[in-house]
Amino acid sequence: MAKVTLKVYRGDKEKGEFKTYEVPIEDGMVILDAIHYIQANIDNDIAVRWNCKAAKCGSCSAEVNGKPSLMCKTRLDRFAKDEVITVQPLKTFPLIKDLVTDVSWNYEVNKHITPLTSKDEGEWVIYQEDIERVQEFRKCIECFLCQDVCHVLRDHDKHANFAGPRFLVRTAGLEMHPKDTASRTKYLKEEGGIGYCNITKCCTEVCPEEIHITDNAIIPLKERVVDDFYDPIAKFLKGLFKK
Amino acid sequence: MTQSTVNSSPAHTTKTVRKDNWWLEPASIALGFTLFIIYATFRAFENNYYEINQYLSPFYSPKIILEFWKFSPAILVLWIPAGFRATCYYYRKAYYRSYFMDPPACGVGHGGGSSYCGETTFPFVLQNLHRYFFYMAALVVLWLWKDAFDSLFFQGQFTFSILSLVMFVNVVLLSNYTFGCHAYRHLVGGKLDCFSCTKASQTKHKVWQFVSKLNEHHMFWAWMSLFSVAFTDFYIRQVASGAYSPMRIF
Q1: Which of A159, A170, A199, B229 could make an SS bond with B4 (beta carbons 3.0 to 4.6 A apart)?
Q2: Is the Cβ pair A14, B9 closer than 8 Å?
Q3: Which region, left, alpha or beta, applies to residue B247 given φ > 0 means left and ψ of -120 to 50 means alpha?
């Protein structure tokens, strides 16, 4: 039976090493299957977070050959036959053990975003063309791969200043909602730190839901911030028409 | 916002474990940009061979002749498309990756450092002026359409040449790039929260949809128009210097 070689990180944030495993390959196997094989047959104590195995819960995020990926969506037949596959935990979040990181920082960031605010208390009738943009953002499964790959968090450690792509997507979904009346541009400019994003599009590249994070969420939000803070003509016109 | 620390465990001791040729894309882009910048700078300062008969180089259009200006007239114009492209959302991605290596590729470390300010401080905060460059670049593109139509007439007679065709292809590519811009997409309708609310917003929605289609391929239009504008200028230079003919068809 053909085998695949995996180099998997084993350890915590203080001490650890890459351990090499050989796993027999079956048709349609994904990285998560291989990790489960290791857990069941070789090292029972390997820590891995997973749930649906259908790329919908966003639990099994890791870095496969250096690329942030869902382990349940990364097929083994994507790799060359003799390739040694490296599996690491996410870099952007504190490591707990093996492939499991503490992503709770994200939930704290989420609490700072003004939720949907509407003055319309009656029955909502919303046309498709008004909600289409928001529906794309609602596909997010919160796997936090975009947060992991974002160099502002990953390399510059700007967790205190920047909300990250996931929460810019969430904010975009609220800002563009036809029934929402709140403005979040001040939050985006200050606490959300949208100016830290230099739109290098890695978040879009790794999104398993193929959300156009940069083009459809971040850049439109940047333009809304420009409207309110950097474009005196737009601001003047906005004030004029409001009156 | 809650402070957190990047995972600095022994799990990530190297800048990357990526095995693909991740360096190829930023290296190719850096090469492409550098060649274009060298050529455009040479042509801007050459101040010669930019016009012959009804043909005018896009680097020198609109031609502005001022008595007190002793340098190349291209300098009076080129800052507009240069500023438009420098602040363009696609080009920003490209040069932040290729020139600044911040980051060079996804998941590839670059040393980092907490002094990073992104686009929050000078000079990169000026990227927020993109829409103003768009307004001016749109006028330049409209002028290039005029140049393309002017190239069809010589001494009052209709004529058609391969060079005119090149000028038309160039201005189509430039239009698709300019009017597929993210800032324009926002201004034309993206800023609305409700597309169905009024007659005006319904019309804006249609325009926004069209601009969004162009915007999906913004990178493609950015590169194609960069090549075409350089090629058009090169062709006109060669014709003006007598090396090539405009290849008149009728």
Answers
A1: A159
A2: yes
A3: left
